[in-house]
Amino acid sequence: MAEKGKYAIGSFSPRYTPVIQAVLRAAQKAQSPFICQISQKELERYGITPKEFADEFYARLQSEGITVPAVLHLDHTKTFSVIQEAVEAGFTSIMIDASEKPFEENVRISKEAVEFAHAHGVSAEAELGMIGTTDYIETDNDEELYTDPQEAKRFVEGTGVDSLAVSVGTAHGVYMVKEPKIDFARLEAIRQLTPVHLVLHGGSGVPAWMIEKAIRLPQGGVSKVNIATDLELSLLEALGREERMTNAELKALPPEELNAGLAAVEATVLDKIANFLGSQGQAADFTL
């Protein structure tokens, strides 16, 4: 539906369980379809289990009266047991990331994860090429290797993956040295050779016009955009902090302080939905 409507679904990472409430409220206010996600490294860094994260997500769906399409995604994950744990906890999609491996090994590992996910009624994303990072929260290194369109075709056919994260110039984290860019010609070439949904990681800090162009490519472009760092930056700024906390530390904050942080995140998500993704008002596209 996003591809047909020329918008993208935001895959937002709250990183802390209390922040799930803020991102869901924003999606509901904007009447936007919505993906809530967390990666393996985020689970480890913030001290959360897949079950804790999933339990909070589903509890908030009920308590907040969420009626827009909202699903739960496991982002970058390299350990099969974490994927199994997430599926058991109720995650509706997973991402296997073996992008640092040689092509054939990436295919083999990804295919195994895809088959496991599909057997449990869960969709699967994988990565081809390597998406760089600047803060090491989602991935292990800052290496960048652009996705080869012909390899993308072989990869999709060999794995049966539902969506493909492509490396076309964006990076995880905050752009402090390099400038954000998107190789639109490469993205178009990948789109022409692969029928699956394309995912753009590293959406934080990328100019809105770049995101919009990537979504609206003539043959169909990116239909899922991952946004994590911008949410945490707005949270920390509202709290008057610079250093990340653990999940337990955030939960221990006084209610008035926490609420100020959650309001800032909600405003950021609303802005991304309206000015990046174009998904506001699109909840009606989906039958639940």
What report would you give on this structure?
This protein is α/β, with parallel strands linked by helices and 288 residues long. It has a single domain (2-279), classed as Alpha-Beta Barrel (TIM Barrel). Helix content is 46%, strand content 16%. It is built from twelve helices and ten strands. It has helices at 2-5, 19-30, 40-46, 50-63, 80-89, 103-119, 149-159, 184-193, 208-215, 229-239, 247-251, 255-277; strands at residues 9-12, 34-38, 70-77, 93-96, 123-128, 132-133, 163-166, 171-172, 197-200, 222-227. Helix 2 (19-30) crosses helix 12 (255-277), helix 7 packs parallel to helix 8 and helix 10 runs antiparallel to helix 12. The model has no long low-confidence stretch (mean pLDDT 91).
Radius of gyration: 18 Å
Number of strands: 10
> Can you summarize the main beta sheet?
8 strands, parallel, barrel
Q: How do the strands line up in the largest sheet?
A: 1-2-3-4-5-7-9-10
CATH architecture: Alpha-Beta Barrel
In helices, the fraction of residues equals 40-55%
The name CATH uses for the topology is TIM Barrel
Q: Overall pLDDT, averaged?
A: 91
CATH class categorisation:
Alpha Beta
Note the total helix count: 12
Principal-axis shape equals globular
* Domain unit count: 1
Strand content: 15-25%
| pLDDT < 50 stretches | none
N- and C-termini, Cα separation: 13 Å
The run of helices and strands is HEHEHHEHEHEEHEEHEHEHHH
CATH superfamily: Aldolase class I
Based on secondary structure, the structural category is alpha/beta
Structural key phrases:
288 residues; alpha/beta; TIM Barrel; eight-stranded parallel barrel; two-stranded parallel sheet; 12 helices; 10 strands; 46% helix; zinc ion binding; aldehyde-lyase activity; Aldolase_TIM; FBA_II
